[in-house]
């Protein structure tokens, strides 16, 4: 797969830079990130970053491409060989879940990018997203022709799954990592707090997948 093979070939320094940049971009977004801070976090100087990757824009593109390129590859691999549109769609969504789970920075990165109006999206990322969209379009059109799915807007179907998944992952991370946030609910209503905690501990990704598939299946 694209990103896994790439990481194996990249130098240790290069991987440290990408990991540091990913953490910084996820924390403060593109506008708030500084190459100095990324360099310090990676244990290198700015000149090393410019030599290996380039400026902040190029670094941001590489960070996102690591994730979106991986997602496109995963989907392609998962869908290949699946029998029927329903199974293909299930595997399509499962590949997205795998990508989100393997790249925990994806959720905050995407939330920040959406909030900024997508003004920092590089061309290579748009190409990755078009590839992902095209695969879903083919699956949904084939399913509609065969009477398996209801006719559906491809973009809406994609966002119907991805939106709740990304938002859920953000809530899950906040609940687990910010005790003050969780304690607020405990003080307000202990019973509801316990219920929310149990639901967050459960596999929310699987529930989102189940509900999305149910919404698209005909009959």
Characteristics of this structure?
flat, 12 helices, 219 residues, mainly alpha, Tetracycline Repressor, domain 2
Description:
The chain has 219 residues and is mostly helical. The protein has a domain of 153 residues: Orthogonal Bundle (Tetracycline Repressor, domain 2), CATH 1.10.357. 82% of the residues lie in helices and 0% in strands. It contains twelve helices and no strands. Helix 6 runs parallel beside helix 9. The longest helix is centred in the first third of the chain and has 24 residues. The chain is flat. The relative contact order is 0.10. The model has no long low-confidence stretch (mean pLDDT 88).
Give the topology.
Blueprint: H1 2-9, H2 12-32, H3 35-42, H4 46-52, H5 56-79, H6 84-102, H7 106-115, H8 123-145, H9 154-177, H10 179-188, H11 190-201, H12 204-216
């Amino acid at each position: 797969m694209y990103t896994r093979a790439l990481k194996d070939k990249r130098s240790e320094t290069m991987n440290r830079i990408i990991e540091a940049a990913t953490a910084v971009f996820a924390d403060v977004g593109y506008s708030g990130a500084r190459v100095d801070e990324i360099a310090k976090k990676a244990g290198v100087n700015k000149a090393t970053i410019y030599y290996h990757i380039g400026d902040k824009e190029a670094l941001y593109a590489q960070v996102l491409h690591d994730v979106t390129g991986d997602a496109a590859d995963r989907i392609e691999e998962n869908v290949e060989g699946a029998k029927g549109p329903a199974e293909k769609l299930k595997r399509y969504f499962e590949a997205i879940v795998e990508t989100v789970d393997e790249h925990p920075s994806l959720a905050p990165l995407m939330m920040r990018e959406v909030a900024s109006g997508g003004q920092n999206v590089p061309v290579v990322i748009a190409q990755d997203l078009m590839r992902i969209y095209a695969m879903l379009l083919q699956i949904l059109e084939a399913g509609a022709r065969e009477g398996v799915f209801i006719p559906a807007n491809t973009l809406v179907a994609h966002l119907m799954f991805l939106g709740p998944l990304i938002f859920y992952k953000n809530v899950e991370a906040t609940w687990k990592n910010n005790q003050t946030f969780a304690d607020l609910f405990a003080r307000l209503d202990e019973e509801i707090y316990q219920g929310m905690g149990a639901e967050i501990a459960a596999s929310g990704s699987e529930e989102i997948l189940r509900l999305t598939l149910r919404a698209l299946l005909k009959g």
